[in-house]
Amino acid sequence: MDKLQDIIAKITPLDDNIMTKVQTRLDTLTKPIGSLGALESLAKQFVGARKTLTPAAPHKAIVLMAADHGVAIENVSAYPQEVTEQMIYNFCSGGAAINVLAKHTNADLILVDVGVTAELPAHLPILHRKVRHGTNNIRCGAAMSETDVMQAIHIGVDIANSLIDNGIQVIGLGEMGIGNTTVSSAIASVLMDKSPSEVTGVGTGLDDKLLAHKVNVVSEAIAINNPNANDVIDVLTKVGGLEIASLTGVILAGACRNVLIIIDGFIASTAALAAYRLCPDVKDYFIAAHLSPEPGHNVILQELSLTPLLYLQMRLGEGTGAALGMTILDASLKILNEMATFDEAKVASALTD
Amino acid sequence: MDKLQDIIAKITPLDDNIMTKVQTRLDTLTKPIGSLGALESLAKQFVGARKTLTPAAPHKAIVLMAADHGVAIENVSAYPQEVTEQMIYNFCSGGAAINVLAKHTNADLILVDVGVTAELPAHLPILHRKVRHGTNNIRCGAAMSETDVMQAIHIGVDIANSLIDNGIQVIGLGEMGIGNTTVSSAIASVLMDKSPSEVTGVGTGLDDKLLAHKVNVVSEAIAINNPNANDVIDVLTKVGGLEIASLTGVILAGACRNVLIIIDGFIASTAALAAYRLCPDVKDYFIAAHLSPEPGHNVILQELSLTPLLYLQMRLGEGTGAALGMTILDASLKILNEMATFDEAKVASALTD
């Protein structure tokens, strides 16, 4: 925990002074004051994190953490567990939605095996960081050991640090793992003291009967494990997932080094919630890209007081919503950098100024 | 009216047959059925309009119609009327928000003077289509003659046709004109039988007192003109604007030639409402890019049963929201064209299939 505590201790709120300066600059641009809404607040947030008034177009990466879940055996997903492995191959050959959307927004896509059940060949263009071959079934006991959780978090920390060392300034959260909406519901339920039914949805696609079954599985997992809601590491150990723990590490390391974090859907938001409970200041670095129809996503975003940018009814994960959110962040920085001021353009400013 | 009736008669609903085929294709891609939400429906809408199963990346244009409004004299805007002219120069030199965002989404920006009060030099890189030097003050009588309205509509028709002749497949609606939220509120109030206070907002920025004054101006304009709510041309004549009439023409010509129309904010949405009342089938071609905080925008989008993609609290106009919406449409077509199928990627499809 020492290394993690060091990181947490170094996370600071955004720089208010520079944000005031950039708002003054935004107010001189040829548009009514505040009329670009979220584009203005995103530019301000980026500048407040990066502590520069003249930010260049940011280099962006989506970190896609993949892992398996023992609970997948409980018939909680529309897809069999082997799809996690199969999708890794799909990511590697460029055929998945996140490949298309990461390219669309010009973001690097970093694929990480942090706990896929299958052995993955060394030649695959992924980071091989397998902590273990999937978690245990949380309906029967703890997902993993505390050591596993800490290892997964530190994997995320190290990957984020390496990306940042190489110039990445914005990180989007991606994940893949059959069964991980079930685990996310358990984490969300415990950390926010919500009933499982409030934070459990159809995931990749379940009918009403299977959804009711999934809610029961979440309830039973919480009952048998009795995680300590005030101890994030205990919650991740008992009902967590390796990809969620790793993303928590990515978030903490990113915020520690002034990198904005683009949250994706429900699963990524549970990592955001976990990081927030470990360090509330991390929230300053969050951008909520979109709102998923998974009910738990909205509950978490409200808990974090975050307003999503996009309402596209997307519920795929992989970082797909984060990728689209990045296009809006890019636009916000172009507004800051490329628009003319009232003086430059010889346009009269507001009568009410 | 003859030419316009010909156009309206040729507007057809989207091609259901090809849309069913493309949904089948979308359902074979490596993602849970329907999990890309609006990205799937946008791709389907584009294909249904273009009637091709293999759409290339679309060429896009934003048509920015500029005009002045006699009602600007009534202290209904935070900005003086000369800002319309000044902003034209700003658009021409690339310093406005729409310049930045059109470039961001790789769309052509077509600037049109359809009724700016000032004389604009012939050398400016705009289309000089001035119908008249601004409208009359609608608080005192009709904005313009029916002949003016028809001329403005046909200007929009001709510009859209010319763009489409040159390969444009998607058109975003932009506008500039100090005072045009006041006019839009009057149009929206009449066409939807809503009280002026329901559809009038702060525009470029008014305090509570000036907002109440603006609502009064809208009420008085409607009272003195008594437009026939069942006659769109009469409404535009009595309380309309030249840029709104021209955008109505753009919409009708675009839909007639299978081009999707990206609605921007409140003012553009009044043109969409006008076109819809002239031809309900035009609605199939609409994409609501974003939701503005102007209250009338939401009322119109609900009237048209449209769900906006972006919630960015933007209230600038110019086509800025439409430009950002285009980035989502582009992403949707890349999803359709570039993702692998379950078979291609050797990924197991849903157990519940």
TrEMBL record, chains A, B:
InterPro entries assigned: Nict_dMeBzImd_PRibTrfase, Nict_dMeBzImd_PRibTrfase_bact, Nict_dMeBzImd_PRibTrfase_N, Nict_dMeBzImd_PRibTrfase_sf
Top-tier EC class: transferase
Any GO BP: cobalamin biosynthetic process
Organism per entry: bioreactor metagenome
Cross-referenced HAMAP family: CobT (MF_00230)
Signal sequence segment: none
Enzyme Commission number, as recorded: 2.4.2.21
Keywords in alphabetical order: Cobalamin biosynthesis, Glycosyltransferase, Transferase
CDD domains, per database record: DMB-PRT_CobT
A UniProt-annotated Pfam family: DBI_PRT
PANTHER family: NICOTINATE-NUCLEOTIDE--DIMETHYLBENZIMIDAZOLE PHOSPHORIBOSYLTRANSFERASE
Protein name: Nicotinate-nucleotide--dimethylbenzimidazole phosphoribosyltransferase
The keyword Ligase is annotated on this UniProt entry: no
Molecular function terms, GO-annotated: nicotinate-nucleotide-dimethylbenzimidazole phosphoribosyltransferase activity
Family that this chain belongs to: Belongs to the CobT family.
NCBIfam families: cobT_DBIPRT, PRK00105.1
Pathway membership: Nucleoside biosynthesis; alpha-ribazole biosynthesis; alpha-ribazole from 5,6-dimethylbenzimidazole: step 1/2
UniProt keyword annotation of Metal-binding present: no
Catalyzed reactions: 5,6-dimethylbenzimidazole + nicotinate beta-D-ribonucleotide = alpha-ribazole 5'-phosphate + nicotinate + H(+)
